[in-house]
Write the structure tokens for this entry.
Amino acid sequence: MTVNRNYAPNVLMDMLHQEMPLDIGSFDLRGHDMKPALFIIDEVVGFCTPDAGNLAPVTGDPNITAIQNMVKRTDELARQFTAKGYPIWAFRDQHLPDVPEPPYPPHCIIGSGEELLVPELRWLHECDGATVVPKRCISGFVAHQNDLISWMNYQGVTHAVVTGICTDICNTDFVNPLLSARNAQMFPGLQEIVLYTEACATYNLTIDTCQAINLPDTASHPAEPMHYIGLKIMHGRGAHLADDLILA
Ligand SMILES: [Zn+2]
């Protein structure tokens, strides 16, 4: 079965841009009193490597390019942060075999290899400035709230720079509570939360694919509009969106 469309393929994105515009630009992190920290969300094999598991992109998916670009930009940014002595906090989604995470199928099971950082980022395990932590639920904030608050306040983080996957799921569920916690003055030094849009991506499941593999139409999750909507929601809550970070 195929979808009967009576509109151009890009009309949805055109409408989103027109009806719900975003303000994306450069963000300058060069202030003397700034201490940015980089957050990397779930750039693991099970979400990024083609055909690596139930929630990995499938060979031929055009969204693989966006995911590969995210990994490349994250690696570049992490090396810049490390060179400047700025701290990094990386989440790795991972689950026990007998503990499901509804509504998702089994993914990133410990020992499967899916839970490992993508090869490009494994150097973070040996990096003194990087903290790599497991996470067993969508929200990294929920998973590590106490440790995270202590770590950020100890580091004196003024700006949280966020990268990773998925823009509208784990990134949103990390950034929105972080914004609330900042506004509740749980981080005395935290000023701004910045999404680095070039290093964020989400998964792609078109309605055609849903129908081809007998998933309900409501499971559809086209990457480009869902990425955009994720950015819109975080932007609306007070996060900055930057496609360019000026570090020095
Ligand atoms: Zn998970």
